[in-house]
Amino acid sequence: MNIMNSLYRLFQGRHGSLGSILLLAIILMVVMPMMFDIYRLNLAGRYLTYAFVALGLVLCWGYGGILSLGQGIFFGIGGYAMAMFLKIEASDPVSTSIQSTPGIPDFMDWNRLTELPWFWVPFNSLTLTIIAVLVLPAAFAYLIGFAMFKRRVSGVYFAIITQALAVVLTILIIGQQGYTGGINGITDLRTLHGWDIRDDSARYLLYYLNAILLIGCLLIGRWVLNCKYGRILSALRDKEDRVRFSGYDVANFKIFIFCLAAFISGIGGAMFTLQVGFMSPSFIGIVPSIEFVIFAAVGGRLSLVGGVYGALIVSFAKTMFAEAYPQLWQFLIGAVFIVVVLVLPYGLASVYGRYGRRLFTPVKDWFSKRKANSSGASAGLKEKRS
Amino acid sequence: MSSNTDFLLSIENLTVSFDGFKAIEGLNFYMDENELRVIIGPNGAGKTTLLDMVCGKTRASEGSIKFKGKELTRMREHRIVWEGVGRKFQTPSIYEELTVFDNLEVSYPQGRGVFGALAFKRDEQVLRRIHEVANEIQLEDRLEEQAGLLSHGQKQWLEIGMLLIQDPELLMLDEPVAGMSVSEREETAKLLRKIAQGRSVIVIEHDMEFVASLGGKVTVLHQGKILAEGDMQALKQDKRVIDVYLGH
After folding, report:
1. What are the TM regions of this chain, as residue ranges (chain A) (predicted)?
2. For residue A282, which of A10, A29, A376, B48 sits 20 to 30 Å off, Cα-Cα?
3. How many domains does chain A have?
4. B111 in reach of chain A (CB within 8 A)
């Protein structure tokens, strides 16, 4: 009886029911690996790294009302951090012996650098690299958030500033070719501590690692939304002044969710680099940043799993259409975005909310009956609550 | 002349100007502990601006606002709330998408920092307090309902409840009965008299009958200054008050 109760409680929680996360986990870890060959699976893995960013946007845009058009920044920081480590490893003195300075990345040599710049040095270590992937995006988000939210910059102004920052970062990376690899990005990444990340078994492993991390981030997001913080966040989106005059330092609450979104995006960026084998500024600027927003909008900005489905569906559609009609894709994605905003403001998840939920009501009824039977001792105030 | 610290709230020489227009000018206002005070005045007299300044929404150009001897004019908004000042806005300001329960829980004065809110546990004490307040504002049987679905009067009560749960020492209510039916007004007057026990309350109101039913001292504001102060009966005889306000 007790087991039934805890099982029932697992499926509760208004945001991101565990059932939907479980279903997603099954699709990601069982169904897709069975359906796809390694090429397609690797592609799916790449799209799932975008899902991290979409998930971050569900949290900060959907629930927190903070629209960021610069999430590519955090995806990029995570991705570049990982790429720098892999590039140093790929540039060992033996394989770079034809360079005028062997042992440094090729693009540095082309730009007549003779030693590794100081900010590359920490990326010799995998531990420091992982720390950088986990800390740098959130730290940068903290700086942006602190500067903006403490001054009460919000809404459209915040969106424009984040977009501008994404452009600035892109220009900076492209301009500093010797330090960053420029417009080509950091390419030709091969091994991680001697482990070839390009062969099939590595791709399988990375795909699964990616899926597990994504589910982990979903669970973090779910936990955050379901505690008091999550309700304050929704309250904030609705009536900011009421929250402020109820004794909350509103800026801190916004900074936190923005940092969390950046943290999650950074993990996605690092996984992108590992699975795709390169990182470039084209994943940071305006276009990718807006695409991330479209993923979240199509999937449903109030649904944690919606963001993941949105990233998968839109990206696969992009691949299929762009192969056939490369010119038309931009128009199509624009049209999809408009249709979603006009007809389905809460995305595909709201379609499920409207029609699909009925499919599961018999299951839920069964659980509630079990619960009604087993309660009694733990009645009291808790009973009133449920 | 008594010193500042004897009063719960003492406002001295308060001035604020918006692009040269002085919404409040050289205002002095004192309030005792456990006092119920009503502020009346014609539109544009500066009533709402005064409350905005006490709770930190609008910053003073000059003058001081002391609450329990502490200066509020430079304090950040949420700190003013922590000091024990609660403010109800004119239009019901509740979280429409959340349930009544959540509205009250979000207002519960615990877990006010980011990490506090993440670690917040809904324990027996929290539940008891929420039910207690819900009972007081007559919404106990609607806790699970979405707040946006409440009637206008119930929304006003809910916002009052959201302040009550914080147990403020000074409660400021901006036109709490605007748009309410007659029976709702009576209920609200009853509620206000009850919650005024053990705390100070400032009420801004237009409705004279309602003001009379509350009792307590009345302050008449006009053009950013205090025109008269006293009980309602005396003010009704005051020539200046009749001219600017009651005569309409």
Report:
1. 21-41, 47-66, 118-144, 156-175, 205-225, 246-272, 304-322, 328-349
2. A29
3. 2
4. yes
